[in-house]
Amino acid sequence: MNKARSAPPSRIRAVASVLRRNIRVWRKYMISSMLGSLTEPFLYLLALGYGLGALITEVEGMSYVQFIAPGLVVSASMYAATFEGTYGTFTRLVPQHTFEGILATPVGVAEIVLAEILYSSIKALTAGCAVLAVVSIFGLAHSPIVLLIPFLSLITGILFGGLAVLVAGASPSYDFFNYYFTLVVTPLFLFSGIFFPLGQLPEWAQTIAWFSPLTHAANLSRALFLGQLNPDLLVNAGWLLGATLVPIYPAYLLLRRRLIK
Predict the structure, then answer these.
(1) Which of 96, 113, 125, 157 is the most exposed place for a label (fewest CB within 10 A)?
(2) pTM of the predicted model, to two decimals?
(3) Phi, psi (degrees; rounded to nearest 5) at 141
(4) Higher pLDDT, 61 or 81
(5) Which residues contact 105 (CB under 8 A, 6 or more apart)?
(6) Burial of 92 (0-12, 13-18, 19+ CB in 10 A)
(7) Is the dihedral of CA 237, 160, 132, 218 positive or negative?
(8) Is 163 exposed, middle or buried (0-12, 13-18, 19+ CB in 10 A)?
(9) Is residue 2 part of a domain?
(10) Into how many domains does the chain fold?
(11) Cβ-based neighbour number of residue 153 at 10 Å
(12) How far apart are CA 149 and CA 69, in angstroms?
């Protein structure tokens, strides 16, 4: 008997196979997906950056459109990862029963969860790069270290993709996602320092906002746009990197409970 032939694939190969399957499906509607990721940040940039921005002389030493552009890049990454990790993962989990078919192969739940998170992060990466290209066309990216933004978008995607897969694993239906977007994602978008300095908030609200992962992502993005790196950014980077690990195991437990009867 050839033992090598019957041996299960390594975890990396198993994750890669699931990820490759998702990307093949995505290729069929990639253009429409990219347009969807671009539309909302582009409208915010026009309406707030150039509309409201015409009434605001300066924010922290820069024009208003320069102030909000870095945050819009990482918020696009957050939304792309969140949509894929919630609606996309739930679709493959329940209506399509895709994961049940995958489990019939030598691939386990852990590999499925990791692949789903990585797939969400790839969506976040492409959305962040697309918005970065747009704001660069508007002349809002000047520092060469802005080229590190794709890496930041990827990390942001891993974090919010993990949270979204966790929510999908706990969700009984698509309607449940309305609560997550309304009570979690939208407040993070509005109160993470993207549209106004957090120093304007009461002290207790600033403390809460500090724990928002999007706050740290927005701080890092703005520093990269301006080319102003300082030691305080290590706290933002450390918090963001550490937080990426938090939702992975709970997401695995929830999906395992639903897939392994």
Answers:
(1) 96
(2) 0.91
(3) -120, 115
(4) 81
(5) none
(6) buried
(7) negative
(8) buried
(9) no
(10) 1
(11) 30
(12) 12
Distance CA 150, CA 129 (A): 6
Q: Classify residue 69: in a domain, yes or no.
A: yes
Domain containing 160 equals: 7-259
Contacts of 40 (CB under 8 A, 6+ apart): 76, 79
- For 210, the token pair is 């500090």
Q: Model confidence over 164-217: pLDDT tens digits?
A: 999 999 999 999 999 999 999 999 999 999 999 998 899 999 999 999 999 999
State how far the alpha carbon of 140 is from the alpha carbons of 20, 64, 234, in Å: 35, 11, 24
Lookup: tokens for 8: 């299960």
Structure tokens, 240: 């963001």
Which two three-digit tokens encode residue 5?
A: 């032939």
